[in-house]
Every structure is written in C-alpha cells, then in structure tokens.
Amino acid sequence: MDDLIQEFIAETRETLEALSGEIVAWEAQPDDRARLDAIFRFVHTVKGSCGFLDLPRLGRLSHAAEDVLAQVREGLRSPDRLLVNAVLAIVDRIGELVEAIDSGTSLPDQGDELLIGALAEGAAEVAQANIPGLHRAPARSVRLNVDLLDRMMSGMSDMVLARNELARRLRGGDVDPTIEAALERLSLTVGEMRDTVTRTRMQKIDALFSALPRMVRDTAAGLGKSVLLNVEGSDVELDREMIEMMRDPLVHIIRNSIDHGIEAPVERRAAGKRENGRLTVSARQSGNQIIIEISDDGRGIDTEKLIRKLVANGRDEAKLRGLSERAKLELVFEPGLSSKDVVSEVSGRGVGMDIVRASIEQIGGRVDLDSIPGKGLKLAIHVPLTLSIISAIVVGAGGQRFAISRQAIEEIVTDQGEAIRIDTIGGAQVLSVRGRRMPLLNLCEVLGLTRAVHNGPRMISIVNIGEGSYALAADMVLDNEELVIKPASPAVMSTGVYAGQTLPDSGLPMLLLDCAGIAHVAGLDFSRDDDHVEDEAIAEAELGMPALLFIDLDGARRAVPLAAVDRVEQVDGDSVRFAAGRRRVTIDGRILPLAAQGDIAGRARLNVLRLKDGANEVSYAIDEALDIILLPEELVPAREPGPIAGVALIDGEQVELLDILWVFDEHADRESEEHAPLCLIAGDKDGWMASFVRPLLETAGYRVATQLAPGETPAVVLSADEVPIALAPKAPVVRLRNRRAAAGASDDSVYRYDRAGLLSALEARMAGKGR
Amino acid sequence: MPHLYLIAQLAGRTVAIDSDQVESVVDIGEVTQVPLASQHVRGLAALRSRVVTVVDTHTALGLDSSREARRAVITHVEGHHYALLVDALDDVAPFELLPLAGGVALGAAWQRAGRGIVERDGEPILAIDLAALVPGLSAGLN
C-alpha cells in the first residue's frame, strides 16, 4: 500500500505542477472548456484514487469539487468568480494535503467543511489561510528520460553480446583456469546487471493487476454487491510507461463495471444469475498488440438509456436513433454522459469513459466494446506492443529459428505420439488429439520454406488464438527463452505473420511469430465454431484437476494428480532390487524407493512414475501410462486410509485415484519424531501446501497438521499468501507467497519454492527472533 | 550552399547520398531471412544490440538482386533502422545540389528516388533519397 501511496503522491504532485498554468488560465477565462476539462479530470482522478487508497478527507474534497465542475460542464451553473475561487481553494488544499501525507505531518481539518461550503451557490467567499510549517519530504525516486533508459538497455545488450563473443573465443583453446574464473564472474555480473537494467524499463503487468482484488472488493462492498474477480496473464512484462498510462483507464473501467454493469444481488437473482457478479481481467499478447480484457456478467450497456440521456442533453434524437448498434454502443464514450441516474461515490457519472478512451488513444491504443444486454459487457483495450519481455518457445523450421509466445501455446506434442492422429480432409490436414479436432498448419509451408532434412519426429504446437485453436507443426522445438521483443519495421510487419523481432544471446536476430496472423494468412476461419468454443471453455473451467490415467501392475485403471508426476520413465527390470529393507530402483545413478501395487517380478522392462514433492522423490511402478484427463470434482473417498484416496467416474468407468500423500508417507526415506514441534498449515485452499510443503517440513523434523486436535498448540503456523489467519492461536506465523519477489521492504513472507528460506524462517520465528 | 554527400556505387551507377540520412556505414554479418516479406527485404541483421532490416537496393530499384553485396549504409526512417546494401563507397565530400536537367527520364525506379544531381569534376551524379528505397513506407516502392 505504501508504494501505491507514494505513487499517488508523485502523480498528484506532478499533475498539480502541470495544472498550475491551467488554473491560472481558467481563472482569467472561466468559460474555457478545455481548461475546465483538465481541472475536472484532475479532481476526478484524485477522487478515484482516494476511495481506493482510503484517504477520506481528500475524497470528500475532490468529490465536492467534482460535483460542482460537473454542473458547470452540463451548463447547470455558470463559472463565476466565486465558484472559480472556491474550486481553486480546494485544488490548493488537495496539494497541501498531499504534501502533508508525504511528509507525515498532519493538517488541521476544520477548514475542509468551509471550503466545501464555499462551493454552494450563493455562498460567501472564504479567505484561504495559508498554513505554515509545511515542508516537502525529500523525494524517494528519480524520474529519468526514457531515452536515457533505452541507451542504457542497448548498452547492456551490447555488453551481453561482447561477453558471449569472448566466451566463444575462449572456449576453443587451452585457457588458464583463472581467466575462466574471471570470465565466469563477469558473466554472472553481466547477467544480474541485465536483469536490473531490464527492470528499469519493464514491469510485469502484475504491477497493474495486483491492486485489483482489493479495489474490486472495496468498491463492491461500498455498493452492497459481491463480485468475484478473476485475473489472468499477469506475468506479461510491459514497458513501464505503458503500464503507468493504463493504470487510470483500467481503474475507471473496473469501477464502472462494478457500479453500472453488475447488478445488485436482488436484481441478479431475479434475472436468474448467480448472486456474485463475475469480473475477469486478463492480459495477453496477440500479434503486435497487448490486449487487456475486462469482462463482467452484468447488465451490459443500455443503449436506449444512453440515447434518452443524450437527447435530454440536447442532442438530435432522430440522428442518434439512426446510428448502427455498434455506433450506439460507442455513445458511451461521449463526454459528460451519465448512464446511471444516481451519482455514487464510486464512479461518478460515467465521465470515466471519455477520459478512458482519450488516454488509451494517447498511447496509440483503442478500446473495443462487446455488449450483450442482460448478459454482460466485454471491454478490450488494445495497446501497441512497443517493448516487452515475453516467455517464448523457440522452434526450428526450414533451418531457421522462430519464437512463439508461450502464452499462445496450449501444449506441444509430437506427430508420433500415441494419442495423436493426423488426417488429410480435402486439401487440409487435421490433427486429432484426445477427442479434439483442429486444423493443422505446417510452419514451413505457411512461410514458404523448405523443410530441413532430419529424421526425428515433427513437433506440433497447439496454439490458441482467442477465437479458436489450431496445430502448428515445426521441424523441432529448440529452446525456451525469455525474449525482449521489439517492433519490427513496416516491411517485415506487412507480411502479417510476425509480431516483432528480438536479438537473442546468439547475436542473430529472430522473429516472433504472430499465431493469429499465421491463421489468417493460412485462411483458417474460426467464426463458425464460436458457440462451440464457448461451451467447451465453460466445461473445462468446471472440471477439476488434471491427472495422469494409467494401468497399474495389478491391471486396475488408476489416476494420479499430474502435479505430483515429475516424469514417466522406462527402466530395466533388473535395476529393481530389494535392498535395505524395501524395494528400490536405480534411475539416473540414484537410488529411489519403489512403490508398487502388483507383481514386479519377471518383467524385463518396467514403466515407472517418478513422483516428486519437493524434497522427496518416490517412484511408482505401473504397467502403462494412458492419457491425461481432468478429474471430476466428485470423488468417492476410500473407506480406510491406504494407497487409494478414492474413486472417480471417468468416461463412465470407475477409476481409482492414487493417494500421493500416503505413497510419500509410506515410501519416502525419512523419519518422523514423536516430540517434534507441531506446524499448523492454515489457509491451504488448494491443497498445495498439504501435498508439497508437508513432506518438506516432515523431513526437516516437524509434525504437520492442517487442523488442530483439541488441546494442541502449534509451535508455528504456516499460512498461504494473503489469507487472514482467523484460527491462529498464539503462535508465530510464517506466510508463503506465490510470487518470487517480495511485495516491499515490509513483506516478510517467504517465496513458496524457497525451501531453505522457509525452513530458516520457521526456525527464526519459533526462536522468537522474527516478527 | 554546399552540403556533405556520400558518393557510392549502387546497381552499377554512381549515386550521391545526403550525409544527414546516413547514420553509419557497416559490413553486414549474417542475415536472418524474413519469409513472406517482399523481395526488397533481404532479412534482419544485428548491429551490435540493434536489429536492422536489410534492404536489397538492387531489387528496390527493379534490378536483379545482388546476393554478394555486404556493405551497407545505415539509415533511420520513421523509428526503424535500415541497412541499405551498396556495391561500394567512393568518397565523402561537400557538393551543391542542382536540379535535374529538364527532360531527363531516369526510369521509373530511379525517378522515385532521385532528388537532383551533384557535379563531381564535371560528372553529374544522381542524388538519391534513401527513404524512397525503404519498402513498406508510404513513400516507398512496396
């Protein structure tokens, strides 16, 4: 929250500085519409941020000023000198309050009501008393020219290339180990430096999304609504500039969605919807654009109401009615429009939308609307991809390398896989995989390249481009890299199949493929199965956890959660030995405990599941792996604890689910102590901690419980990210977070894959050293 | 007012290039092909940390491609860097830009790029606009 406040202060201060000229000009010429709009936008933004940051005083002031300015905009009041003065006094007070917040001093608030009162029509003028003793706190950040950062970044890439060159030269001959060590150190520093430098310019879009849950909750609560927020794609990295520019529009849109779009619970029930509104915010890269989609399941845009309102504002009714449906929707972007009759604390008068569109167009983006009356509104912000870091898969085709955004890839299969079937229908190739059928494109053919001669299987990526999926065959999959993507020149972009260019460490430029563009160039048309795709998406969302289906040694069909399976491997029958009291198998030069249900003896080769839970690894012998399935939520639990957790119905057949915890408990090499300290796992919603952290804790000598037996007191509590610990007894708490980076200096949580960090944090808290 | 021009050999002709348009002159290393792009685009090349689009000036002028050309003039047009392949570089010297003599028909491709002439020891040299050779631009040949 501190970061957000700092940002708010910096931003407000900056706008105020820019605004000071406007204010003076407005004073001289109160009927200047552009100036009025600028000041209006300022107070509107301040109001928006205040509600979110919980700054009620600023909120009250800006709300009052906004009200009056809106009246002026609608022509209900004329901007006389008194009004102008009163508004300016409020703008000044906002500035003072912001400085006070920054320097941590307080400002007497009895003046606020006077200032607000002065806005009323016919009120007497108040003299604004200057409050002495305010001093600006020294700024904690510096603002740099983007150009300078760019130079720094390209200097950095030069350095990386030079390092690579040096390493290549040295690799050939006999090199003094000390030189090698020095190069190693240089490499390390250069690598770290590159990350840091990149961070100066790029930011995960998560920076934009992380504040949303709280904001949505507060906004919804303030309106007596309940909204479920779903955020997707928050690891896309973008130009900081872009992220900053999108912050306000996004906040406005979401507030509008909750306020105007999503109905009150009673109304929703009446309309046959769930009481909780759903709001989805997602970011994805598509071609040379980043698309941020905000969709809700509210009432959509009521164009009829929009028109009535505009007509009331003096617009020509016949002309408005003559517009196309699409153009009618676009009316929502008209300035000074209210689609809601009651002005609320939250979003005001729908004024956000004209500002939203203006600021998005300012960065070269656009806003698309898709409204279904009564069903919801989908709003897509398209912004150009100027610079971004994308996690990509590098594929080879025709002797050349291309990058494909990982986000677009659903999975990668080989054309020799068992579950894969390729047919030629008419002039097109079609790939069938696990009951899904989709068009198959050959990258070499699409690009007009000759296929490189090689004997291995072809790699097929299943790509999702939003409106549908298709399969894209390449000669091979080479690598998996984080790439800095920059826009390519128009001559390259005009082909329609590339999204940008990048310079990987090899020093040879590479193109990022635009999967949607390729589908377009190849003439794929997904518009026919729109409805079908939607059904499937819903069906998929409602199914549960992915699992591996296999035939066990005793012939039974069983499933195991995919998350626990590290890989499936084939081993020789004689690498299994009964040694040191149990059955063990040798894989990759390691000895692993081997669990099995059935007869192992006499098999020449054996398929083995390697199950991993972090610290421990156990192998489990099976007959054959079959398929990846989604486990239904309904699971009939086993009658007694054992290797089977329960049974589920899959395709009309009963399939037993392997109890991973039991397998690890029984077979993993570890000891457990009677008097070990008790660690309570709290807030473990998805069972992640129970399945993965628990074994780690147990090997480290803790007893682990997810629920306390009566009379038990935990020595330490382990809690998931952001879960309030309601049941926490008086015990030290260690929090786990999902993200690698800490949220700030005060964030004392531990990254959930940081095993060493977790154990030392547990020890420290128990010893009373921690907070 | 004399102005600095770069005298180069391009598609068998001598041409003058305004030095303001030239960022540097380099030898292009390995080029990454850009499938499906117009044939004026030879590919992409790395210039230290920068990726440039390599333009085959021969095809851009409607001539046969010059596969062996490696030397290129780097220019910056509308936010992107381009490497325009040239056969050879002769000279850099100040010249006065003169209007093209009336009635001279340069041929379609040259006509679009020609901006006037400069005179070197009595020899008239066509001054060209590099941006006109860059494909995919509004003023280009694409």
Automatic annotation (TrEMBL), chain A:
Domain HPt as annotated: residue spans: 1-101
Reaction catalysed by this enzyme: ATP + protein L-histidine = ADP + protein N-phospho-L-histidine
SMART domains: CheW (SM00260), H-kinase_dim (SM01231), HATPase_c (SM00387), HPT (SM00073)
Modified residues (Phosphohistidine): 44
Example GO BP: chemotaxis
Molecular-function annotations in GO: phosphorelay sensor kinase activity
Pfam families reported in the protein's UniProt record: CheW, HATPase_c, Hpt
Keyword Transferase: yes
Residue ranges annotated for the Histidine kinase domain, each copy included: 130-387
Annotated ranges, domain CheW-like: 389-524
InterPro entries recorded: Bact_Chemotaxis_CheA, CheA-like_dim, CheA-like_homodim_sf, CheW-like_dom_sf, CheW-lke_dom, HATPase_C_sf, HATPase_dom, His_kinase_dom
Coiled-coil ranges from the UniProt annotation: none
Entry keyword Cytoplasm: no
An example Gene Ontology CC term for this record: cytoplasm
Free-text function comment from the UniProt entry: Involved in the transmission of sensory signals from the chemoreceptors to the flagellar motors. CheA is autophosphorylated; it can transfer its phosphate group to either CheB or CheY.
Protein name: Chemotaxis protein CheA
From TrEMBL, chain B:
Any one GO CC term of the record: cytosol
Annotated SUPFAM superfamilies: CheW-like (SSF50341)
Any single biological process term in GO: signal transduction
Domain (CheW-like) ranges: 2-139
Stated name of the protein: Chemotaxis protein CheW
Pfam families per the UniProt record, alphabetical: CheW
Species whose genome carries this gene: Sphingomonas gei
Signal peptide from the UniProt entry: none
